[in-house]
């Protein structure tokens, strides 16, 4: 082991800065150069100031636990680093409520899918007079969509009665089933739901993967209420139609789905404002996460308004990408605004009058505040 003669002096007598940790033979990270570099690239998920203080510690911890023969971080470690970086960035912006709102949004997503599944299964798939599907039926139903809706009903049931990890697997299976009907339709010659219906279902399904680990009654009852809501809506539509078949085809229900998305966001916003009064902002944050899948429920009407046509896949795909980017932009904008406000409040609290109690800190208190903020 090389022995240094001073803090800034090399063994050859030259003066200079010491080599960074992990690049010399004395570093505990030596011998892992390629793997260390890859872990450090993953650390860009963290804010720069956090990396400068804790970067070596984090990389060293991962390298201590990793298999000595590995050359790449494991998928589990990669996800763990990215998740930790996201959490730290949200913490820096005072926006950890977004993570608290994620399980709430996932529960609402499952409940919405349960309502859609019941409504579309009863109102469209089990109708005796199809309008927009070929004559080749799928057993007693009209399209392959029946398998999709049954799959999502089973996923909702799993969310209600099974542990969280099994519920997530059921949601993943329903997502796979939704994707499977797309290539299955041309292979079998049977009809399937249109893509402007399947795309929002997939968006809600991906959000539903974030179901809470310990849902409690607040996480288990909503899917049941969603299924009951879908059943009631289908019954009301059938009663209103009488002997007619006004909403027995997918193309004739697109406006209904779009309105359902707007109603969903409105209800969650109202509930979120009510809960925010008691200090729980998780439902308000969940509104941001639900904006994209809810807007995709109106994919076809929005595409028609923009292109004056909604008959081609490129048009629908373009609209879906734009809606997704807009939803992500709204989330980022709110987080950035919240972060600026959060840092301003912290700055006033650290160096001036407390915005809550009006206390003016003395010199010692200000020095202590600076020390605490500098401590990792």
Automatic annotation (TrEMBL):
<feature type="region of interest" description="Disordered">
    <location>
        <begin position="1"/>
        <end position="32"/>
    </location>
</feature>
<keyword id="KW-0472">Membrane</keyword>
<feature type="compositionally biased region" description="Basic and acidic residues">
    <location>
        <begin position="1"/>
        <end position="12"/>
    </location>
</feature>
<feature type="transmembrane region" description="Helical">
    <location>
        <begin position="194"/>
        <end position="211"/>
    </location>
</feature>
<feature type="transmembrane region" description="Helical">
    <location>
        <begin position="223"/>
        <end position="240"/>
    </location>
</feature>
<feature type="transmembrane region" description="Helical">
    <location>
        <begin position="96"/>
        <end position="124"/>
    </location>
</feature>
<feature type="transmembrane region" description="Helical">
    <location>
        <begin position="170"/>
        <end position="188"/>
    </location>
</feature>
<keyword id="KW-0812">Transmembrane</keyword>
<feature type="transmembrane region" description="Helical">
    <location>
        <begin position="246"/>
        <end position="271"/>
    </location>
</feature>
<feature type="transmembrane region" description="Helical">
    <location>
        <begin position="283"/>
        <end position="304"/>
    </location>
</feature>
<feature type="transmembrane region" description="Helical">
    <location>
        <begin position="144"/>
        <end position="163"/>
    </location>
</feature>
<protein>
    <submittedName>
        <fullName>GlsB/YeaQ/YmgE family stress response membrane protein</fullName>
    </submittedName>
</protein>
<feature type="transmembrane region" description="Helical">
    <location>
        <begin position="316"/>
        <end position="338"/>
    </location>
</feature>
<keyword id="KW-1133">Transmembrane helix</keyword>
